[in-house]
Design brief:
Shape of chain A: globular
Structural class of chain A: alpha/beta
Keywords (chain B): Antibiotic resistance, Cell membrane, Membrane, Transmembrane, Transmembrane helix, Transport
Oligomer: heterodimer
Strand content of chain B: under 5%
Order of helices and strands of chain A: EEEHEEHEHHHEHEHEEHH
Mean pLDDT of chain A: 84
Number of strands of chain A: 10
Helix content of chain B: over 70%
CATH superfamily of the largest domain in chain A: P-loop containing nucleotide triphosphate hydrolases
Largest sheet of chain A: 6 strands, mixed
Number of domains of chain A: 2
Pfam family, one (chain B): ABC2_membrane
Radius of gyration of chain B: 19 Å
Number of helices of chain A: 9
Distance between the termini of chain B: 18 Å
Order of helices and strands of chain B: HHHHHHHHHHH
Main location (chain B): membrane
Organism (chain B): Streptomyces himastatinicus ATCC 53653
Distance between the termini of chain A: 44 Å
CATH architecture of the largest domain in chain A: 3-Layer(aba) Sandwich
Protein name (chain B): Transport permease protein
Number of strands of chain B: 0
Shape of chain B: elongated
Number of domains of chain B: 1
Chain lengths: 269, 253
């Protein structure tokens, strides 16, 4: 069911504008995303990240400007765009009453694939959800839900995937799991447009980062390019204190290790 | 029309039907108000209401059935509202599917859920002494009218389901519909009502539908009531469908 991909940028956005009444959310947004890359749209709450994704996913019409995904204009060829994309929303839109397996099989059926049950079982395995597969999603933890959500958006191998704040509300461990999943995706040639308000997430994952602020892209480049916008680093000697996140992960990892080796010494390798 | 309309609607209906079968309490709640009304009227008020030679449970069952449907469709609005709110509605709309299948799945599920509730209520009525000598064709006619009424109210329920801003708002529109049978021929003959109330009762949809079903059950001629009833059902259906589709287009842009 995958639409033919074409040469040129996987996503092209030019002069995109959108207002809700008097509130101008997007005031002329431009960016390109190269095929097979991870592009992070970084911005605070209300910067217009979700509005941009909704326009690209054909859920919302822009007031002005153009946007194309996989070579198809979102306004004139929305059905072709929907053949090319997969959307994972800001609030994990999974069916709480169905089991994880049923959620996956439903999406496989809706994408008109053969043997939805086998596709579901395979994804449950890949996302370490096999044991929970038969349980209702309402019993899942936040991290499991998000893993299921991302697994659902992989069905059908869409060439372009939108991840709208994929790690919002997740604990550090679950966030790292999601990061691994996203990196794996891009490794297989999928184009990923990621929105996030976490600087570290953009730094970890993205090939290019664009900062959306008050409805405009104010910076767009690789991490190295963004770093050059600042004065050259000067050398200072500061005692390195572990961040709380490092401590948290070290302690969690330490417990796992001591169970395996029988020692009580903590810390990561 | 998308080539996958049928396939997609079946897949999505399977999903919403599971929502019903996995929370049977919604069916019980749908049936409980009409059943309570039926008990109250038959065993408390019924003795004081003169319905001629007809037994009171036979007299009031048609009105109770309409009340069941009115309370059932508030769950239709609720289920749709939850889908919109949770984001799964948007996930489906961003997929390469027949988009309107998402709505039709809710409509079909509403028809099935209401059918189960109606069977439940008729079962209780039989236990309470409801009897009808109606033949197969009369029962089919009753089923047809109830189907049309459910379909019309279901599309009406789609409007708040898509556009309500709170759960309470999504369900609240059903209350006036649940109470509409009170100001009709459902529980007392309209000729006992004072002028303006009687005029309203005799010209609102419930009365013609109730009279038609009652006459079908009693093997009496249905007269012009059946045409008035059908006109109301089709009229509500068409208007509700137009407004529901407008609300839907606003939602999917």
């Amino acid at each position: 069911m995958t639409a033919q991909s074409i040469a040129g940028p996987a996503i092209r956005v030019q002069g995109l504008k959108k207002s809700y009444g008097k509130l101008e959310v997007l005031r002329g947004v431009d960016f390109d995303v190269a095929p097979g890359s991870i592009f992070a749209l970084l911005g605070s709450n209300g910067a217009g990240k979700t509005t941009t994704v909704r326009i690209l996913a054909t859920l919302l019409k822009a007031d002005a400007g153009t946007a194309s995904v996989n070579g198809f204009d979102v306004a004139t060829h929305p059905a072709d765009v929907r053949e090319s994309i997969s959307l994972t929303g800001q609030f994990a839109a999974v069916d709480e009453i169905l089991s994880g397996r049923e959620n996956l099989a439903l999406v496989a059926r809706l994408r008109h694939l053969k043997d939805p049950g086998a596709i579901a079982d395979d994804l449950l395995r890949r996302f370490s959800l096999s044991e929970a597969g038969a349980r209702r999603v309402s019993t899942y933890s936040g991290g499991m839900r998000r893993r299921l959500d991302i697994a659902m958006s992989l069905i059908g191998n869409s060439p372009v995937i939108f991840l709208d704040e994929p790690t919002a509300g997740l604990d550090p461990e679950a966030r790292i799991e999601v990061w691994h999943a996203v990196k794996e995706l891009a490794g297989h040639g999928t184009t990923v447009l990621l929105t996030t308000q976490y600087l570290e997430e953009a730094e970890q994952l993205a090939d290019r980062i664009a900062i959306l602020h008050q409805g405009r892209i104010i910076v767009n480049g690789t991490l190295a390019e963004l770093k050059q916008l600042f004065p050259p680093a000067k050398v200072e000697y500061v005692e390195k204190q572990p961040t709380l996140e490092e401590i948290f992960l070290a302690v969690i990892g330490g417990i796992d290790k001591s169970e395996v080796t029988g020692t009580t010494t903590g810390g990561r390798g | 029309m998308n080539a996958y309309f049928f396939n997609d609607t079946v897949a999505l209906t399977g999903r919403t039907l599971r929502h019903v079968t996995r929370s049977m309490d919604t069916i019980i709640t749908t049936a409980i108000t009409p059943v309570a009304m039926m008990l109250m009227f038959v065993y408390v008020f019924g003795g004081a209401i003169d319905t001629g030679s007809v037994s009171y449970v036979n007299y009031m069952l048609p009105g109770i059935l309409l009340m069941t449907i009115a309370s059932g469709i508030s769950y239709t609005a609720y289920r749709l509202f939850t889908d919109v709110k949770s984001g799964i509605f948007e996930r489906f709309q961003s997929m390469p599917i027949a988009r309107s299948g998402v709505l039709w799945a809710h409509v079909v599920t509403s028809l099935v859920a209401n059918l189960i509730a109606l069977v439940l209520v008729v079962g209780v009525a039989v236990l309470m002494g409801f009897r009808s000598g109606a033949g197969v064709s009369a029962w089919l006619a009753v089923a047809g009218i109830l189907f049309l009424f459910t379909l019309a109210l279901t599309w009406l329920a789609v409007i708040p389901g898509l556009s309500a801003s709170s759960v309470e708002g999504a369900g609240a529109f059903a209350y006036p519909l649940i109470f509409l049978p009170f100001v009709s021929s459902a529980f007392v003959p309209t000729k006992t009502m004072p002028g303006p109330v009687r005029w309203f009762a005799e010209h609102q949809p419930v009365t013609s539908i109730v009279n038609t079903i009652r006459n079908l059950f009693a093997q009496q001629p249905v007269g012009d009531d059946i045409w008035t009833a059908l006109a109301w059902c089709v009229g509500i259906l068409v208007v509700a469908y137009i407004f529901a589709m407008a609300a839907y287009r606003r939602k999917i842009a």
